[in-house]
Amino acid sequence: MVRTLVSMTRHHPGDFRANLRSPEPRAAVETFLDVFSRSSLTWDDLAFVRDRTTLPIILKGIQRPEDAERAVASGADGIVVSNHGGRQIDGAIGALDTLPGIVRQVDGRVPVLFDSGIRTGSDILIALALGATAVLIGRPWVYGLALAGTAGAETVLRNLLAELDIALGLSGHASLAELGSGSVARDQTLHGF
Fold first, then answer.
1. 148 and 74, same structural domain?
2. Cα 60 to chain centroid, rounded
3. Cα dihedral 141/147/149/154 (nearest 10)
4. CATH code, domain carrying 138
5. What is the mean pLDDT of residues 130-158?
6. Could you tell me if residue 189 is inside a domain?
7. What is the pLDDT of residue 88?
8. Quick one: 77 and 20 in the same domain?
9. Which of 24, 120, 138, 159 lies 20 to 30 Å from 190, alpha-carbon distance?
10. What's the pLDDT band for 35 if we cut at 50, 70, 90?
11. Which residue among the candidates 11, 12, 84, 191 is catalytic per the annotation?
12. d(C-alpha 83, C-alpha 73), whole Å
């Protein structure tokens, strides 16, 4: 909390020292923590929930292979690789950069979903090629919903599927089953790339 308070104080308009004495940056941090964070949660809480339900537990916000391993060991039925759109931790490692290591760590024991920056069919192709079981579509369908209701959301999803189909064809693949990390990674042996 102290690091967050100092960061927000630095970025708050006005003099840093005056901001440290001001209640506004602290109130902003406290509001953020009340709304978006429950720092008292631990891995034991996941095991507690697992012991009390047969419903699937999907844990969102995994950014490290070690945490993916711990999630599986604690009873998660799936994980979502996500940095929450970078809103919670500005400057955190990109979720796409962490995806391959997490997929390797989980090794097929649970589904690995991907949720960060999916805006086009090519984004879907890349995430699936890097090992995601599926992707979550956050903002695009909401934009369609806002513009044209249910029909707008359906149109966005149809367009994403069409873009994915085009991206598959343009990348030389006939189906999703053909995708692999080599589909999107540069060949390090060619011309120094």
1. yes
2. 7
3. -40
4. 3.20.20.70
5. 93
6. no
7. 59
8. no
9. 120
10. low
11. 84
12. 21
Query: Which band of pLDDT confidence, cut at 50, 70 and 90, is reported for residue 138?
Result: confident
Domain that holds residue 155: 43-183
Closest CA to 99 of 184, 187, 189: 184
SS (H, E, C) the chain: CHHHHHHHHHHCCCCHHHHHHCHHHHHHHHHHHHHHCCCCCCHHHHHHHHHHCCCCCEEEEECCHHHHHHHHHCCCCEEEECCHHHCCCCCCCCHHHHHHHHHHHHCCCCCEEECCCCCCHHHHHHHHHCCCCEECCCHHHHHHHHHHHHHHHHHHHHHHHHHHHHHHHHCCCCCHHHCCHHHCCCCCCCCCC
Instruction: Note whether 160 and 179 are same-domain residues.
Output: yes
Q: Is 12 a catalytic residue?
A: no
My answer on whether 95 and 58 are in the same domain is yes
> In terms of pTM, does the model score above 0.85?
no
- Using CA atoms, how far apart are residues 25 and 4, in angstroms rounded to an integer? 9
What is the predicted pLDDT for the residue at 66? 97
Distances (CA, A) of 162 to 40, 112, 120: 44, 23, 10
Query: Which of 176, 166, 162 is CA-nearest to residue 131?
Result: 176
Give the separation between CA 127 and CA 150, rounded to whole angstroms: 26
- How many domains, in total, are found in the chain? 2
| Whether residue 145 sits in one domain with residue 56 | yes
Say if residues 130 and 94 touch (Cβ distance below 8 Å).
no
